[in-house]
Amino acid sequence: MKLWFRINGLEFCSWFIVWKYLMKAFKQIGVEVYDSPFNAPVDVSEYIELHWGDPQFWNWSGKDVRLRAGYALSEHRSLLHPEKSIPNLQKCQVLICPCQSAAQAYYEAPLDMPIEIAPFGIDEEDMTYHERDWNDKFKFLLIGVAQFRKGTWLAVEAFRKAFGDSDEAQLTVASFVNSPMFERLKADYAKYPNIKFYGKATDVKEYYLAHHVLVSPHLSEGWSLTIPEAMATGMPCIVARCSAPREYFASSFGWWSEMSEDYAPVDQCLPGVKGSWRLPSVESLAEKMKYAADHREECKEKGNQASEYARAQLTWEQSARTIADILEEYL
Q1: What pLDDT does residue 272 have?
Q2: Residue 242's closest CA among 225, 224, 230?
Q3: DSSP 197
């Protein structure tokens, strides 16, 4: 199989991270991958053109390739900029999504191609198991872009509710970019020594290894790279009981944070998109944080199970094989 694996740009973001890991995994399983996502191979008619990323930015070559396929996700049931996304999607002969939750918007869009599922993964060589000191100060990690959809402010509120000014626990908020929410939270909670803020975070593995429990109070996820990565290193997780993680996370790997009866407009994160997202319960988040800190042996056991599962079932090599099998089927 020859694959022209395309992406719109190579700036550092979650789209690029997925592309980079899959490029490596495709080569590991013996797929011949053309190295440039932008310039077509000379013998392009022998290649499958696979476009990954936000469909509104897909730029199909228009050349006579063997197969045109798309790999995409969505964090809401309505697509962002459908006037651009849908015409690009309609050029696919098969569309692949990482999970059923991420595919929902495409199932309900005017698209007639088959939609298949191929989960994301973790890098086994990078995200190795780490033996933590469970007797050390208990540290929670909230990592990713600090924003509305991620529920970042909810985790900070929950930590304050659970621990107040106590030094028995610490919350780290590590944001990949210094977003407006990150700057507001940093200013509002700067006086609390048990809450640490780190902007422009890049080496995610170092954050995983320095903490005990990952917190993900998301309102919606198309997948979430950080949850399975943290699991792979032996971290139990506290995860909002909604969207994509429902398909790969379980209470044996940590704890579900229950949802509240409060809803918020989607357009606070996705401008122009109607609808609402349900908010995770601050009370439930606080309760699970306090329970985790008080039950360290249980945390360790859940982290062990999480690592075994992630490293056995959620790898980029498995992702690449699943995608390759799907593409082979539709040639």
Answers
A1: 86
A2: 224
A3: E
- The mean pLDDT of 119-135, rounded to a whole number, is 95
**CA-CA-CA-CA torsion sign (180, 278, 225, 295):** positive
Residues 6+ apart with CB under 8 A from 119: 98, 99, 223, 247, 248, 314, 318, 319, 322
Specify whether the CB–CB gap between 73 and 215 falls below 8 A: no
Closest by CA to 309, choosing from 256, 239, 250, 255, is: 250
Position 12 scores a pLDDT of 79
Distance CA 18, CA 292 (A): 31
Q: What is the pLDDT of residues 18-72, one digit of tens each?
A: 999 999 999 999 999 998 999 999 999 999 999 999 999 999 999 999 999 999 9
Return the number of other C-beta atoms located less than 10 Å from residue 263's C-beta.
13
Structure tokens at 217: 């109070």
Q: Reply yes or no on whether the pLDDT at 11 is more than 90.
A: no
Q: How far apart are CA 253 and CA 230, in angstroms?
A: 11
Q: Which of 23, 19, 6, 73 is nearest to 223 (CA)?
A: 73
Model pLDDT for residues 237-271, shown as the tens digit of each residue: 999 999 999 999 999 999 999 999 999 999 999 88
Would you say the C-alpha torsion 194, 195, 201, 204 has a positive or negative sign?
Answer: positive
Q: Are 32 and 320 in contact (CB under 8 A)?
A: no
Which amino acid, one-letter code, is at 159?
F
3-state DSSP assignment of residue 155: helix
The SS3 assignment for 17 reads helix
Report d(CA 162, CA 208) in Å as an integer. Answer: 22
Name the residue type at position 215.
V
Nearest one of 108, 98, 117 to 77, comparing CA atoms: 108
Read off the pLDDT of residues 226-238 as tens digits, 9 standing for 90 and up: 999 999 999 999 9
